[in-house]
Task: inverse folding
């Protein structure tokens, strides 16, 4: 634990990449810190205020550190299914899906979103591991599959209950006049749009538990687009600090913390990412181990924790049994601004992964009681399609 | 009464051999929203540089060191119910603990308010 753990300049800062909106963040008062190899805003006015703003209004996040990839070539969906456990072939144009990049043992190398744009597959992968992901995909996919890393595109996320009302004010037009408007998208839909002559790829998605959009935009136009959004009363720029507390409240796991190459999808409580057809047919990386885990249950499982008292329990704290032996570990934890109390995610032995189960955590030599709680901690607010509606 | 500052962003207000310790306004600003403070128990003997308290913001936990040697006489009970006092009044009501000094000469190595202000401006 650091002393008064705030970030000061260190030698690593010299080698940090600068994102297209770097100067914009600084001009807006963003406090810049090293993250995923880039200098990024951790907060503007304060994590608590920014978090609560997103839950009630709309927040603009710069997530340009994430990797945007285009995969194309013959039978690209079927070829990608040799690695991912999702039913990519069945993904209709304009639809996106959450999936996992798996190693040969079924361990999680990354989590990602894959979209069928109609003429290629568009993937968003985590910033800290994007170069490794690309190298792995290149190694695993046949040569006739092209991978384009879109290094000239920024990625913005507009999140919150007023996101749709805000984005509607920008005058974004469908690429074809008879295509749906941006506000006609439902959760996990995506489409191309135009804004002031600039081509945008927009999806109705995000990682805060709120309704919202993710917008891929050419880097040279990102600043004017961010300015246009933040000129609206309902939109403020939001830093990475609040992004983390929002996704924790939403019960969403974070790569490198709640998921890593040692953890299999079922253990991570991500069985939903293994499509029904793929369960029946197998044929993805580590399928044998993962299908076995599905059938017989994992040894340990990711759960949500409600913490007694007010002290946050962080990543690195452990779960102990009555004898003090370590039986699990906390992988994400912090103070929930919406609930006003600490919450966490942990791995516990599967037999204890039951709602209402009381457990004991240990942090810096101090024992802290906690209760296993269902997630999300704060209800998700996605704009889902009504039943029976599918394009 | 005199107030001294450490390079680790603690302040200590001294009256005779008694002192009150907290973190500076600069430190609270860097930490952001404080959501929990763990203060030391009465009677705890501290050596300069020891972990004396823990302050938790939404994002992270941080140690607060003992700026000098001494024995804790009181932790600030008000912080249990209202840790945000550290943000709203860091150098007043948001104090962390009181102590009885065992070696007042250690204060001579600390900064006064003007020196601390210059130190922070150089960060």
Result:
């Amino acid at each position: 634990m650091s002393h008064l753990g705030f970030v000061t300049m260190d030698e690593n800062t010299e080698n940090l990449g600068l994102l297209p909106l770097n100067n914009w963040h600084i001009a807006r008062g963003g406090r810049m810190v090293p993250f995923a190899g880039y200098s990024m805003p951790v907060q503007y006015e304060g994590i608590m205020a920014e978090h609560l703003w997103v839950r009630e209004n709309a927040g603009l996040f710069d997530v340009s550190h994430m990797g945007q990839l285009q995969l194309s070539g013959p039978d690209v969906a079927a070829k990608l299914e040799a690695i991912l456990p999702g039913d990519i072939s069945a993904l209709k144009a304009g639809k996106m899906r959450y999936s996992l990049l798996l190693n040969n043992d079924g361990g999680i190398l990354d989590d990602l979103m894959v979209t069928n744009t109609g003429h290629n597959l568009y993937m968003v992968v985590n910033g800290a591991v994007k170069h490794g992901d690309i190298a792995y995909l290149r190694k695993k996919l046949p040569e006739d599959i092209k991978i384009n890393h879109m290094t000239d595109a920024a990625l913005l996320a507009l999140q919150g209950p007023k996101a749709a009302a805000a984005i509607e004010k920008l005058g974004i037009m469908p690429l074809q006049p008879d295509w749906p408007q941006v506000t006609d998208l439902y959760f996990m839909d995506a489409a191309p749009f135009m804004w002031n002559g600039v081509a945008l790829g927009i999806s109705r998605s995000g990682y805060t538990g709120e309704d919202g959009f993710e917008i891929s935009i050419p880097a040279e136009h990102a600043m004017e687009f961010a300015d246009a959004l933040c000129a609206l009363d309902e939109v403020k720029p939001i830093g990475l600090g609040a992004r983390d507390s929002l996704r924790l409240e939403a019960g969403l796991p974070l790569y490198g913390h709640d998921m890593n190459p040692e953890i299999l999808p079922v253990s991570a409580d991500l069985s939903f990412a293994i499509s029904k057809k793929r369960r029946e047919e197998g044929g993805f990386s580590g399928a044998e181990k993962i299908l076995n885990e599905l059938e017989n249950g994992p040894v340990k499982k990711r759960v949500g924790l409600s913490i007694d008292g007010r002290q946050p329990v962080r990543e690195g704290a452990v779960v102990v049994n009555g004898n003090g032996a370590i039986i699990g570990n906390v992988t994400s934890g912090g103070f929930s601004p919406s609930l006003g109390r600490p919450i966490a995610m942990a791995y516990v032995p599967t037999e204890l992964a039951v709602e209402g189960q009381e457990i004991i955590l240990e942090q810096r030599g101090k024992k802290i009681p906690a209760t296993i709680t269902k997630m999300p901690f704060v209800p998700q607010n996605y704009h889902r399609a009504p039943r029976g509606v599918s394009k | 009464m005199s107030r001294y500052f450490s390079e680790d962003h603690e302040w200590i207000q001294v009256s005779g051999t008694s002192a009150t310790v907290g973190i500076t306004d600069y430190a609270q600003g860097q930490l952001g929203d404080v959501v929990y403070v763990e203060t030391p128990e009465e009677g705890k003997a501290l050596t300069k540089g020891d972990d004396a308290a823990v302050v938790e913001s939404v994002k992270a936990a941080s140690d607060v060191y003992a700026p000098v040697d001494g024995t804790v006489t009181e932790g600030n009970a008000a912080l249990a119910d209202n840790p945000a006092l550290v943000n709203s009044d860091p150098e007043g009501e948001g104090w962390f603990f009181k102590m009885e000094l065992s070696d007042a000469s250690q204060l001579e190595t600390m900064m006064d308010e003007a020196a601390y202000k210059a130190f922070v401006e150089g960060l």
User: Anything to note?
Assistant: Residues 85 and 274 of chain A are 5 Å apart (CA to CA).
